[in-house]
User: What shape does this take?
Amino acid sequence: MGRARDIMRRSIFTFLKDFQLFTLFPCLIAFSYAVSVLMSQSLVSSSHVFVLIHGRMRSLFLAAGIPPSSEIFAFFNLKLSETVFTFLIALPFSFSFLLLAKASVIRALDHRRLEKSYPFSSWLSEFNTLCVTQLWNSLVMLSANATSFCILSISFNLFDVLGLSSKGSILLLSATGLVIYSIVLANSYITCKLALVLSGMEKQGGFASILKAFFLIRGRTLTALSLAVTLSLGLAAIEALFQYRVAKAYHESMTLSSSMVLEGMLVSYLYSILLVLDTVNDCVFVESCRNDPPERLPIACIPRSFSRASLNFLADDRDQVADQVERRKDNRHPQMEMY
Assistant: This one.
């Protein structure tokens, strides 16, 4: 937790140091994505698409052998349907405005580190790389969800065959399955987040960035999870604020006033600020991982299905990081070379 606290402090300091830069251009780009996410959650109760998604998910659970009497999976089905609905509504904005905002933040930090001026048009060179990586991230998250769902389905059917279909057994299996699902999803989420930042910093996207991010967080998973949970709680708090101040007031009066619009815009802007801070935090975390003494990548543990080019790409990156660490150690004690 101490390491996560230091990274968070450094991220906030970096954000406040260039406050005008980060709150002007990247936040305005991410504003559209923030509005789509907040508005999609307000449309859940009155949308026919959500009812259709919820019914399809329930049918899928029944077909997989998961008992409908489980209250845990009833709640899980509801939240998963809300997540799918929000993802579909915000999908066009996540592949356009959100990636543009992340590219502008990564480019701004890169130019600030190199002590160069920051042209606003320079983020376009990273957009295509981020878009390719985002597509791979979507496939990875889909695969993680599908794998977890298949394991849950096999477990429930196995318990049914063995005659362990009592209420206590179902409750125990449901709780265990949700814990395992949360662990798999959390690790996939932080890996995909860091892969997106790595692809923008190194100008090379695709599955190689996901593989590098996976090895980058080895031994630092707890720190990455702590940072992700902290910022996710902040985003959830802003979403709850929007529901309480804007959505609830609109449903009670059924009229849209100018104060509601202004308050909704303010909350959406706060949401976009936190999205930008999240990207800054990911960049700082990646830099801190690179500055640590690098560990040798377990090449023997990598499946043979990966190409030799991908393995060489990872090994070259490891050697580059090691050289950077050695140069920094030498620069810290320049007078020792005289003796």
